[in-house]
Write a structure and sequence with these properties.
Layout (H helix, E strand, L loop, with lengths): L36 H13 L6 H8 L7 H8 L2 H7 L10 E3 L16 E3 L2
Antiparallel strand pairs: 1-2
Length: 121
């Protein structure tokens, strides 16, 4: 992490002064524990089908079929910040990146299908 110096990140509304300097970034983390994979997959499927143009084949390519769901992709569909931030923007901030990481399971528990999904915002 770098030290942030507010003086080096200063500009005016008319653009007359624009210093070069580091841009402060912040990360917000939200961790989910999967309790019902079918409910998650079904909700992601419903979200994908909302546009009226997506087919079940496209759904299966995006989040996997119901018998082999890709849960990280389901979360990526449901937690897409671009969708959320259109209705609830964070004043003074611009989203920069979004990703979903699948964490390893606990010992002696069946492994769930996982992947790491990343969506540009």
């Amino acid at each position: 992490m770098y030290a942030f110096d507010r003086k080096s990140f200063d500009s005016t509304r008319d653009g007359s002064h624009h210093s070069v300097g580091p841009q402060p970034q912040f990360r917000v983390t939200l961790t989910f524990v999967l309790e019902d994979g079918i409910a998650l997959w079904s909700a992601a499927r419903a979200r994908l089908l909302e546009d009226g143009e997506t087919t079940d084949e496209m759904v299966h390519e995006t989040i996997g079929p119901p018998e082999a769901p890709v849960f990280a992709d389901c979360l990526a569909v449901l937690c897409d910040p671009a969708t959320f931030l259109r209705s609830t923007p964070v004043p003074g901030c611009q989203p920069d990146d979004f990703w979903v990481d699948a964490l390893p399971g606990l010992p002696d528990l069946p492994l769930l299908p996982t992947c790491s999904s990343r969506i540009a915002v």
